[in-house]
Amino acid sequence: MAEIQISLGDNAQAAEILGYQDKYLRRLQEALKADIHARGGELTVSGEQREVDKAERVIEHLRTLAKSGVIINTLTVNYALAACEEDDPQVAAKLTETIYTTPRGRAIKPKSFGQWQYLQAIDKHDLVFSIGPAGTGKTYLAVIKAVLALRQRRVQKLVLARPAVEAGEKLGFLPGDLADKVNPYLRPVYDALNDILGLETAAKYVERGIIEVVPLAYMRGRTLDDAFIILDEAQNTTPQQMKMFLTRFGQGSRAVITGDITQIDLPPGQTSGLIEAERRLRDIEDIAFCYLSRADVVRHPLVQKIIEAYEKKWV
């Protein structure tokens, strides 16, 4: 048995790390195989050496985030628990780096080690596949990197494409012109742009053609030079569509392809272009594949539990 004392700093920082009425402390006690007791700003951790060391890494992770101004919440605690399994001792420091500040002044930082690795892959590779469940920030982070590349003049335009596939529903006839019919499928991409750039700036860039948000079918026959191209919901492409997309980007361009292979809306029996691309391209050195998991979910904490429940075999 081992025992250590950990100081959480002043009372305000201790209260933030432990949570209202020790809510986060109870979460740590549930997740770690060690006894953790708090008295004021001091923690006593006891148990097997391996578990005590793990608890120390998690608590130090939370202290680093709190000192840098990151708000501690249930998701932050869950990320810290997941990060303690990583070999990299600098995980917490990497999650304090602001990658973008929105027009409203909100600092965007990677919330999990998986997100940080994804951002690094985009910086280092011209073609990146990001595969993972809903809510892991696949599209949002890609759009941030695309906007940064545009502002730094490393590319001249952004192209965001999505297959127009109904999510298991037959919507029937939709009124309006072609734009009115396809815009509902592209709404999530517009939402990300509006949040990252602001409504007016995003609309101005779209109007000038600096940013294009298009159905995947509109990509056929084009060659895109000096562009940052994002294909969202790629699990709903056919192999032919995926090959068509992959052969679009030209000199000076880079592409990010995102998708969730657990939510494929193609007709039964139809192979997903994302799954086939993963099989065919995984051994090409210059292409990066990033796999996010429920530990990287940045939505409501319940989303992590819902994904976990659906991953289990039905009994």
Q: How would you describe this protein?
A:
- This protein has helices at 11-18, 23-31, 49-67, 74-83, 91-94, 113-124, 138-151, 178-197, 199-208, 239-246, 273-281, 301-311; strands at 2-7, 35-39, 42-47, 100-101, 107-108, 127-131, 157-162, 211-215, 227-231, 254-259, 287-291.
- The longest helix has 20 residues, at 178-197.
- Strand 4 (100-101) and strand 5 form a beta hairpin.
- It is α/β, with parallel strands linked by helices and 315 residues long.
- The chain has 12 helices and 11 strands.
- Helix 3 (49-67) crosses helix 4 (74-83).
- Strands 8-7-9-10-6-11 form a 6-stranded parallel sheet, with helices on both faces. Strands 1-3-2 form a 3-stranded antiparallel sheet, covered by helices on one side.
- Helices cover 43% and strands 17% of the residues.
Summarize the SSE layout with pairings.
Layout: E1 2-7, H1 11-18, H2 23-31, E2 35-39, E3 42-47, H3 49-67, H4 74-83, H5 91-94, E4 100-101, E5 107-108, H6 113-124, E6 127-131, H7 138-151, E7 157-162, H8 178-197, H9 199-208, E8 211-215, E9 227-231, H10 239-246, E10 254-259, H11 273-281, E11 287-291, H12 301-311
Parallel strand pairs: 6-10, 6-11, 7-8, 7-9, 9-10
Antiparallel strand pairs: 1-3, 2-3, 4-5
